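Quick question, first post here. What does this chain look like in 3D?
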Amino acid sequence: MIIKVCGLKVPENHRAIGKLDIDMIGINLYKPSRRYIGNSRLEKINGQKRVGVFVKSTKERILNAIENHKLDFAQLHGDEEVETCQHIRNYIPIIKVFRITPEFDWRSTELFEFADYFLFDTMTDEFGGSGHKFDWSHLNAYKGFTPFLLSGGISPDDADRILSINHPQFKGIDINSKFEISPGIKDVDKVSNFIEEIRK
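> Answer (accepted):
Ran it through. Tokens below.
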């Protein structure tokens, strides 16, 4: 299972989390976010994929950030047009985010099937990191072929529930606010113990 830890912004904390058995590190490049990385630069650790999180960004800004932060993926978390996502994917693999509500139209994912991954998160005004779950039973309505990561309010107590998810395209999880000491600072012990539960 892919494990992504999102919203790291302090080099020391990033180095500690980077020693754990995770696959992806999320770097928040959305200025209004409490986890915005600002001018920090996080080094690459253990071959983990570096994911830049963008919301309502221009193509030019995304492409500049790919170079400046040595990104491996662009996570498009806003209401990006199909053409914008296709353009970015010419340069780098993408994770297209869909924010889920009870009324979400799962057919809307079909236009973005070219994405490398989808990420299903909870609809909030914060564009992620809210700590709120959506009803995971709604995942059964997804009939597409693009593999997806699950996000939105995942907590240290959710390991068994995550491992019980039986969907052919479910490939991993994205953890964030429920593992924090403060926004952008992760509790290393909480993350480590949770990973051990997931990996067992």
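The CA atoms of residues 35 and 199 lie 27 Å apart.
The radius of gyration is 16 Å.
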